[in-house]
Amino acid sequence: MKRYIMTFDQGTTSSRCILYDRSGTPISVGQRELPQIYPQPGWVEHDPEVIWQTQMEAAREAMTKAGATADDVAAIGITNQRETTVVWDRTSGKPICHAIVWQCRRTADLCEAMRRSGIDVNIRSKTGLVADAYFSLTKVRWILDHVEGAAELARAGRLAFGTVDSWLIWKLTGGKRHVTDVTNASRTMMFNIHTRTWDDDILNQFNISRSLLPEVLPSNGFFGETTLFGSPIPIYGVAGDQQASLFGQTCYGVGDVKNTYGTGCFLLMNTGSKAVSSRSGLITTVGWQLDDEVTYALEGSVFIAGAAIQWLRDGIGILANSAESETMARSVSDTGGVYFVPAFTGLGAPYWDPDARGLLCGLTRGTERAHIVRAALEAMAYQTDDVLKIMTADSGIPVTTVRVDGGASANGFLCQFQSDLSSVAVERPQNIETTSLGAAYLAGLGCGLYESREEIASLRTCDAVFRPSMPLLTRAALREGWQAAVRRARG
Ligand code: ADP
User: Fold this and answer.
1) According to the model, what pLDDT value does residue 395 have?
2) What DSSP assignment string belongs to 453-474?
3) DSSP 8-state secondary structure symbol assigned to residue 418
């Protein structure tokens, strides 16, 4: 009996595999850390062979723990760190260099040049992306320019480019399939999200041959099959991590929003069949494609969220652990006028100020540890609130509910404060592993285990719902205080 869906969750710091049963309940987990390579300040790489090995080890561990064989697995679903760029030789099957990770800043100058020359405007309207080193386009160009022999191999048609999903599928299928899904393609900056095809103008501008690129499939498409676990297992559902989380949170209605509170925050809003372009620097992206039907999303992020709690813990040592932040925040009735703007690496949407720096303000002789900790938690909510406001303005869709996940969503104080501040219901699912769950749902749809999104939505179980109860005037005063603090942190 094909009881399980196997999901590969290939993230920036770890490779994980979770086996799910039909109801979306996790049965077993395998996990391996992924070593980070920092060749120079600001540069980040992964070894693609290690990505592959750790992912396979995680898969074998999950299978062993569940006592499962390939015959038990209906399909494999894949979700992955986005934008990270792998280039390999089709003949030898070997990568020609390390993967350039999404965080790597080595192509920041090229992006600056794109902005200066103004070509970013047209690229943005086609791809939905702002000129930034995150996206794969400039990383591919860098590899072709700097890796010995790359340009010749490309001319000979021997090179293959892929995001991590593509690379894993190539390996899983023994080099038979060079494919990706539409959500991952939409992060490469080479893909026109409106026509859903590779964009020849951009490829010509950057002198990248189309022969490098994978075939693009719907997120629930058939990506190939693997015999590496015994009898053949089909690969069916693929999506980049944030899109998979939107799908796993069952945000299937227009205006549905999810927020992941991790190191930073990632907010995505389902905008339906319409690709909404942002006036405030949000990204327009493909949420998913099921067969021929595309769902678009608006995406905004907060650079420093849980990382501020981490800093209080590891940096200045006023917290023993992250979870303690909740009891400490609740031990005081407010922050006593303290605001914490964690602009450690500048501020993103809607401020876009790379020169802003962190600020603690409103300190008095009466300020205690608890006030500062509470201010750090509230800062996650203020920054999220700022992004929600521009999402609403850009899309014209008011947000009534935010579905949350990520490590810091365990914090009930944070969830309640978010609900109060943004005047929205905050829903926390029982399974906050929504990324791998999303991949499992997509794979389940692909292989026919599920009939429809409605069936999947009925599987969703909420752990808690937080509802707003803060008086209007209190909310307005808090927001005003935050804005004043942000002004001081800038410039
Ligand atoms: P990522 O996947 O981005 O590495 P996680 O989703 O695992 O992050 O979340 C970890 C982050 O959440 C850390 O920065 C940590 O400080 C923060 N965090 C974890 N638990 C809590 C909590 N109970 N309250 C507040 N922050 C928390």
Assistant:
1) 95
2) HHHHHTT--EEEEE-----HHH
3) H
Phi, psi angles (nearest 5°) of residue 238: -135, 135
d(CA 131, CA 112): 8
pLDDT at 365: 96
Residue 269 three-state SS: strand
Distance CA 362, CA 357 (A): 16
Q: Which residue has its alpha carbon closest to ligand 1 atom 18?
A: 408
pTM: 0.94
263 lines ligand 1 (CB under 6 A): yes
List pLDDT tens digits, range 327-384.
999 999 999 999 999 998 888 888 888 889 999 999 999 999 999 999 999 999 999 9
Cβ atoms within 10 Å, residue 125:
14
Q: Which two tokens stand for residue 342?
A: 């964690």
The whole-angstrom separation of Cα 402 and Cα 354 is 28
- The C-alpha atoms of residue 176 and residue 225 are separated, in whole angstroms, by 9
Mutational pocket test of ligand 1: of 245, 263, 266, the residue with most ligand atoms within 8 Å of the beta carbon: 263
Regions of the chain with pLDDT less than 50: none
